[in-house]
Write a structure and sequence with these properties.
The complex is a heterodimer of chains A (about 425) and B (about 290). With about 425 residues, chain A is α/β, with parallel strands linked by helices. Chain A is built from 16 helices and ten strands. In chain A, strands 2-1-3-10-4 form a five-stranded mixed beta sheet, with helices on both faces. In chain A, strand 1 (about 45-50), helix 2 and strand 2 form a beta-alpha-beta unit. The termini of chain A are far apart. Residues about 20-40 of chain A have low confidence and may be disordered. Chain B has about 290 residues and is mainly α. Chain B has 13 helices and two strands; from the N terminus they run αββαααααααααααα. Chain B has helices spanning about 10-40, 55-60, 65-95, 100-110, 115-125, 135-140, 155-180, 185-195, 200-210, 210-225, 230-235, 245-255, 260-289; strands at about 40-45, 45-50. In chain B, strand 1 (about 40-45) and strand 2 form a beta hairpin. In chain B, helix 10 runs antiparallel to helix 13 (about 260-290). The longest helix of chain B has about 35 residues, at about 65-95. The radius of gyration of chain B is 24 Å and the shape is globular. Chain B starts with 11 loop residues before the first helix and ends with a helix. Classes of the chains: A alpha/beta (about 425), B mainly alpha (about 290). Chains A and B meet through helix 1, helix 3, helix 4 and helix 15 of A and helix 1 and helix 12 of B.
């Protein structure tokens, strides 16, 4: 009797274990839904999976169609995801090494974080990237610790978008704006004369006084980053302080319009509340999209200069990374190279989706030589092409995101709380040194 | 013996609860233990390196973390009493005999808590806009001075507080309302006969009777406020000068933006300890009476 009880208990334990295993596998299978299993169909087809977002995804799909004409054995599977979704998935998949797509779109300033935390995560593409063919600033963006972690794709060289109608009303000539000081002067004239459709005075430029954007722009013009080659913070450098002082000057002059977040930034176009927007080339898309009523009223000129600044600035753009554990490294590399260096594709990607190529030979395409009716038939691309080449090769750091948040807080202290530039920058330097020692 | 069925009277309960237990173990217990383990590590070049209590030491030196803790405390001290008090008053008002259209008020006051989070946050962003916002328009109309909601530290905090109060007041109101409705009618009638005023009834009957429910609302609101993330994330992005950043948002930044998973886990654990301590204090406070 006693024996039987023991046996029963043992059986029960075994059964519990079996049940546990059963449920566990079931739930593991459930959690595994997101990750694609290795696919190799019977006919020997190669299936390449792609994670990307709206416009980048559409452009890669078109490239895939072209590619399949010569490579019928390669099949593609596209998964559309938002940037946040991709990064969350990428963080977890790289940590476990499972369930990553073969091709992944990554924004330029985000890439280095992954390259640093997961040095073996992405395939080294230095053998297929001709570094001289791409904008130097984009090559700097994808290179980290002697490895090229991704194919450079679209770039974000900046220019100054301006409203020709407001300029005419206030009798300001774009030629008069050579420096940021000129911009401030012109801004005062425009604010005195021009009114938005809602009846408010027109401001000169939109500024988010909680973000590092304007400071980073001017600092880039001075050719310096947040970190030096060794990754030490250098925000107390003379040029960095100069950039912050100029930012303060512009903001304090009162010609700036505050905005809080991306939605309000777009509204400056909708409400026609600013006369100028210093922004990257992709802003063309936003302006056309949000301000269809402003057709023919925009022009583009070079960014206002800062004393001693011989460089230009870029903002945004993405890259294409390849999973290091892909089943078909050669095919994937071959496809990405095709998609990134086919001139016709690069030109159509820009025309349709505003993806401004970083592949220099594609600027020879006719598209970049003709005018855009939205911008008064003027050729606006020359400025971006020239500025793209003038962006300094600023050392990148995996701590860039965190540093940029700290700088944003420092900008708030200076612009909103009226604190003194030099002491804030000194404290900021100390803070960054303590964080990234 | 060997042929005896595994499923019998003794084992069937365990089989029945096994799925829940297993799923709970995998999706709750394991992540909780794993993140405790992770908080002693940091990701360096693709692998986790043991750093001991360094993450916790850094946390105590991290100004942004202290600021996020301070902000969270401010939200807690200002927002929870205002919201619970407001919810109680509205619940009492809605239950008054002379009140017409009770169902209408109950529904409309509860509605905010079912609205989509992003939508409502964006609406508040428009309402509180410094130049064209409705709220400033009203303030200026009655002779006040428009407030620069998102560009000054204290107004930005109050912008967040106003938004979360609007969203969660109705939810707490409904719970308190259920409590008020369960108060026996005889008590109120007896009080009326004794000549008690509205305020007497509120302080000597209603509040003591629904005290456990007020406690429940306070505890859930406290936990909710400590974990606050979405509103500051959308309304102010944590600024200006980190004046509105919460612990939850700082955790998110560290984990998903800076890829410092170990540090983020450490923040999570400190948060857990704080929430645990506060809950114990609140439970104790109710038990004493």
């Amino acid at each position: 009797m006693k024996e039987e009880k023991i046996m029963m208990r043992r059986n029960m334990k075994r059964m519990m274990a079996a049940a546990l295993v059963g449920v566990m596998t079931a739930s593991l299978a459930l959690t595994g839904c997101g990750g694609k299993d290795k696919k190799k169909s019977d006919s020997g087809e190669k299936v390449i999976t792609v994670w990307s977002w709206d416009v980048a995804l559409m452009q890669l799909q078109e490239a895939a169609e072209e590619y399949q004409k010569d490579h019928p054995d390669v099949k593609f599977e596209f998964e559309e995801m938002g940037t946040d979704q991709i990064y969350k998935k990428l963080s977890t998949s790289l940590a476990t090494g499972n369930g990553i797509a073969d091709i992944i779109s990554v924004e330029g300033e985000i890439l280095v974080g992954y390259a640093d935390k997961f040095p073996e995560g992405f395939l080294d593409v230095s053998d297929v990237v001709e570094t001289d063919d791409f904008l130097p600033s984009k090559i700097a963006e994808v290179s980290y610790k002697d490895k090229i972690h991704a194919f450079p794709w679209d770039a974000g060289p900046e220019g100054l978008f301006y409203r020709t109608d407001y300029f005419e009303q206030a009798e300001v000539s774009p030629e008069d704006i050579k420096t940021w000081d000129d911009l401030v002067e012109a801004g005062k004239k425009i604010e005195a004369v021009c009114k938005t459709p809602a009846g408010d005075p027109v401001k000169m430029i939109p500024v988010d006084p909680k973000k590092s954007t304007l400071y980073a722009l001017i600092r880039s013009q001075l050719g310096i980053g947040v970190f030096d080659e060794e990754g030490n913070p250098i925000v107390d450098d003379e040029r960095s302080i100069q950039a912050m002082e100029k930012t303060k000057e512009i903001y304090d002059s009162g010609v700036a319009l505050n905005y809080n977040g991306w939605d309000e930034y777009e509204q400056t176009v909708v409400n026609e509340s600013v006369a100028c927007i210093p922004e990257a080339v992709w802003m063309i898309g936003t302006i056309k999209d949000k301000g269809p009523q402003t057709e023919g009223k925009w022009g583009v000129m070079d960014l206002p200069a800062v004393e001693g600044g011989e460089y230009s600035c870029s903002n945004g753009g993405s890259d294409v990374a390849i999973n290091a554990k892909t089943d078909y490294p050669d095919e994937v590399k071959d496809f990405v190279k095709f998609a990134m260096t086919d001139e016709a594709l690069q030109a159509s990607g820009f025309e349709k989706y505003g993806l401004y190529p970083s592949y220099i030979p594609s600027y020879e395409n006719e598209l970049f030589k003709k005018g855009d009716p939205f911008f008064g038939e003027e050729n606006i691309y020359d400025i971006f092409i020239e500025n793209g080449k003038k962006v300094a090769e600023i050392p990148i750091s995996p701590n860039g995101q965190e540093a940029s948040d700290s700088i944003g807080a420092a900008v708030s202290k200076i612009l909103l709380n009226g604190e003194e530039v030099k002491s804030v920058m000194k404290d900021l330097q100390k803070e960054l040194e303590a964080k990234f020692k | 013996m060997s042929k005896k069925s595994f499923v019998n009277r003794r084992t069937i309960p365990y089989i029945m609860i096994a799925p829940v237990v297993v799923i709970f173990l995998i999706f709750m217990v394991y992540p909780i233990l794993r993140s405790l383990y992770l908080s002693f590590f940091e990701l360096v070049s693709g692998s986790y390196e043991f750093v001991g209590i360094k993450n916790y030491q850094n946390l105590f030196k991290d100004e942004t973390y202290w600021k996020s803790l301070l902000n969270t405390c401010i939200y807690l001290i200002v927002q929870v009493p205002v919201m619970i008090g407001g919810a109680l008053l509205i619940a009492v008002a809605v239950e008054q005999k002379f009140m017409r259209g009770k169902a209408f008020f109950r529904t409309t006051i509860f509605l905010p808590s079912v609205t989509a989070l992003v939508a409502y946050a964006l609406v508040f962003k428009v309402l509180l806009n410094g130049d064209h916002g409705l709220i400033n328009y009203v303030i200026e109309m009655v002779g006040g001075k428009g407030i620069n909601w998102f560009y000054e530290e204290w107004p930005a905090r109050f912008a967040v507080i106003i938004s979360i109060t609007w969203r969660w007041l109705g939810y707490n109101m409904i719970i308190l309302l259920a409590g008020i409705q369960s108060i026996p009618g005889e008590l109120m009638e007896a009080a009326d006969i004794d000549g008690a005023t509205f305020w007497d009834k509120l302080f000597y009957i209603t509040i003591p009777m629904v005290k456990p429910i007020i406690m429940f609302c306070t505890i859930t609101s406290t936990i909710g406020t400590l974990q606050l993330f979405d509103e500051p994330f959308i309304l102010t992005e944590g600024g200006p000068n980190n004046a509105t950043i919460t612990m939850g948002q700082y955790l998110y930044n560290n984990g998903f933006r800076y890829l410092k998973f170990g540090y983020a886990s450490a923040i999570g654990y400190v948060m857990t300890v704080i929430i645990g301590l506060l809950s114990i204090v609140q439970f104790k406070a109710t038990k004493e009476d």
